[in-house]
Known about the structure:
By secondary structure, the chain is α+β, with helices and mostly antiparallel strands. It is built from five helices and eleven strands, in the order βββββαβαβαββββαα. It has helices at about 60-65, 80-90, 105-110, 145-160, 165-170, and strands at about 1-5, 10, 25-30, 35-40, 45-50, 70-80, 100, 115, 120, 120-125, 130-135. The strands form four sheets. A five-stranded mixed beta sheet has the order 7-6-5-10-11, with helices on one face. A two-stranded antiparallel sheet has the order 1-2. Strands 3-4 form a two-stranded antiparallel ribbon. β8 (about 115) and β9 form a beta hairpin. It is globular. The N and C termini lie far apart (about 40 Å).
Amino acid sequence: MEVTYKKEVFPLKKRERKIDSEAPAVRVKMITQETKVIGMMAPKIQIMITLPCIKAYNNGLHNILSEYASKAIVYIITKSSDDNLEKITNAYKIDENFVSNDFKDFSLKFGVNINDELLAKSIFIIDKEGIIKYKQIPSNIETSFDLDEFKENLHEVINFKQKGHTHENWMGV
Length: 173
């Protein structure tokens, strides 16, 4: 896959992540200096958002994330400076424990790395089992996310009810 930035086309490095495939586990240092392993099985759905510039975080995206805050864990990965991160996290009251500008390893494992200085804009929704259920990578970094599509898919993943039974449920484990 390729993305465009300032009229230049860049191929995304490493492997492309596919829908219904297992999300990679990746160690990420948050801006609080805490290191977390994210992307695998979790008690809540995970939403991974990569933004080349944190200033692309906007009211529309924030409103959707706020609506589902009790049912999802949101991680924001960016290359923005600490100053810009502080401005946006304060303006939107975003928990800094879930924001990182340590983007390189994450962007390589999730297939959104452009180079050492840049990553593609993306959204991944990962279910509780650690499976990628949705991804959106705009072909132009300067293009906004399709928030209607994102919200529709997020709603679907959050409200998914497993049919039948799993072995663990059947066995009463």
